[in-house]
């Protein structure tokens, strides 16, 4: 058995060799002047820099959207049912047929199967229908100036300048998500610079209007982040009575054979090669659905850092690939947002790194909950309950 560290809360985006704290806050105009100076130090022409920043302004709507992400506080069953509709399944199948040749090429060149690309395409923009209407430059500079996640967004500003230099972005006209993501599969500028592909062969890359460009670019990015061809990502399983629940969670990895020897069984079909290493996760506790997850599941955190989002997307990809609906089980009652914050405060006071008091059950909080459950003699499945909160 091998224990993995909790997934990092911040991931590198390619334009910085290491994730470091960046200057933020203060007067917005002075902050922009600092960005201009840094852009010049990186070799950008002064006239291009001035043109890029000429109309930039701070947008409170971006900050409001960043603070208003309540859907990520929902438990897995509620979250997945909210995101996976019959319409998205039907449209997924239609788009698979419509772009079958593109999906086949993406799988042949990059090893990424259609289900994965369809799932993210659906969740990000409803297959291109809803791409966002925020000015991309304003969004990125606003979030770089805000002191919540400057280490993520400041490098993206300079990636956007590089996109402008290459003719891939218009500082006034380019619009997308509130977080500065662009196109049908909502990618940040550094990932566009590093992985964008001309999927339709027209000599240009248009991630907003060309589905082949967007899909091939998404596949290229996943491959570049470590996706392994011909390997699984997630498979629903049933847990045996008496399983030591401390083994569940993304921190623990064993071979498929070792899990099967403990009595873990697939709910449908068969599990992959017994030598593959895997974890078993129970996103809503041991009385809810259980999944065996593999290396490729971990790669999906390069797309989105939310445990609940990645798990739902990975599951939806299996549905689009022919898997049945999960066995929902009968999970124990969880915590509301205020209770979750109280729990995180209690855990932080005990010395656990919960990744911030945000009311969201992320990977860090789950790991801390699991450790405390084991200490208190509760089922150590990482799913916090009112009973656990009372005991703390």
TrEMBL record:
Q: Where are the transmembrane segments?
A: none
What GO MF terms are annotated? peptidoglycan lytic transglycosylase activity
Q: What UniProt keywords are attached to this protein's entry?
A: Signal
Question: Which stretch is the leader sequence?
Answer: 1-21
The organism's superkingdom is given as Bacteria
| Pfam families named among the record's database cross-references | PG_binding_1, SLT_2
List each copy of the Peptidoglycan binding-like domain by range. Answer: 337-392
Task: Report the residue ranges that make up the Transglycosylase SLT domain in this protein.
Answer: 28-317
Give me any GO biological process, just one.
peptidoglycan catabolic process
Name it: Lytic murein transglycosylase
